[in-house]
Amino acid sequence: MPDLRSKNWIVAKGVMFALISAISGTLILLQWPSWRQAGLIALLVWASCRFYYFLFYVLEKYVDPTMRYAGILDLISGMRARRKASASASSQTAQGPLPGF
Question: Please, what are the averages of pLDDT over each run of 10 residues along the chain (101 residues)?
């Protein structure tokens, strides 16, 4: 799927996410109305936003500028590929340039 480039559709997508979040939180509070539930929902939203910020801003800007990903699944596959490449590089280093020597 190609990247979303239309500014109007990007804004519409953001509004839809906000509506989904607001409706979901409202429905949870209507089913189990309590201050504790409201606080837990607020904490969940805050922590999720901070985790998303960490994954897609902090890792790229402060840890490794080459870490640019389109989404969480892309991030996971990229991290697996990096781990696999790192493991194979370290096993080749341990064996020396020529196997058996």
Answer: 84 94 94 94 94 87 81 86 82 56 42
Q: Which pLDDT belongs to residue 65? A: 83
Cβ proximity of 60 and 68 under 8 Å: yes
- pLDDT of 101: 42
State the Cα torsion 18-22-23-24 to the nearest 10°: 100
- Burial class (CB within 10 angstroms; exposed 0-12, middle 13-18, buried 19+) of 91: exposed
Helix%, strand%, coil% for the chain, nearest 5 = 75, 0, 25
User: What whole-number distance in Å separates Cα of residue 12 and Cα of residue 75?
Assistant: 24
Q: Which of the 8 DSSP states describes residue 2? A: P
Kindly list the distances between the CA atom of residue 48 and the CA atoms of 36, 40, 54, 55, 94, in Å, as whole numbers in the listed order.
18, 12, 10, 11, 41
CA distance 14 to 8: 10
